[in-house]
Amino acid sequence: MKIGLYFGTFNPIHVGHLIIANHMAEHSGLDQIWMVVTPHNPLKKKSTLLDDYHRLQMVHLATEDFPKIKPSDIEFKLSQPNYTVNTLVHLEEKYPNYEFSLIMGEDNLRSFPKWKNYEAILAHHGIYVYPRLESKSSADEAISTDSEDLDLKIFQKYATKIHMIDAPVVEISSTFIRDNIKKGKNVQPLLPAKVWEYIDHNNFYKK
């Protein structure tokens, strides 16, 4: 089974996440998409995050009507901060018959060489890339942007592992949602209905 791993803090999960996940499930050749809830992204302050299990519950609520999209708490069991390379090793050991690939936006692809052991990840796993507003028309153009941050020879070496998917361009951020809830704005259209109800019931993000 081919599994696409869509990592995120999902603080909170919103309709943009679901649009991308569903598009990957339907149009990339992947069999399932696992929404991997990250307890602690090394690039984010943990103090800004809602409790791990509340974020996981929101992902459950958001994906329960999508049989190809599954929530995952695999990183809850691993040491923190969470590094993708460690998670992949753990998943390969636990599910030896599964093939795991990463799902990321083009902005993350450009910063990928900053990830821990990124070349080892490329050597063993595919990457499915969805466009952002600044996206280019081809993989070569996409990975050559911000060339100061990239080892282009590495990307050329593993070019067959990078799959550019013509997914919808979605620019909704969890930060925008949190900020506007705090301001008392209506953000319901940006969230799955059950996720909005959960946030509203628990008075999350209002302080």
UniProtKB/TrEMBL annotation:
Catalyzed chemical reaction(s): nicotinate beta-D-ribonucleotide + ATP + H(+) = deamido-NAD(+) + diphosphate
InterPro entries: Cyt_trans-like (IPR004821), NadD/NMNAT (IPR005248), Rossmann-like_a/b/a_fold (IPR014729)
Short name of any one Pfam family annotated for the protein: CTP_transf_like
Example GO BP: NAD+ biosynthetic process
GO molecular function, one term: ATP binding
Pathway entry: Cofactor biosynthesis; NAD(+) biosynthesis; deamido-NAD(+) from nicotinate D-ribonucleotide: step 1/1
EC assignment: 2.7.7.18
Protein origin, superkingdom: Bacteria
Keywords on record: ATP-binding, NAD, Nucleotide-binding, Nucleotidyltransferase, Pyridine nucleotide biosynthesis, Transferase
HAMAP family given in the database record: NaMN_adenylyltr
Family assignment from sequence similarity: Belongs to the NadD family.
Function text: Catalyzes the reversible adenylation of nicotinate mononucleotide (NaMN) to nicotinic acid adenine dinucleotide (NaAD).
Protein name: Probable nicotinate-nucleotide adenylyltransferase
Source organism of this protein record: Flavobacterium xueshanense
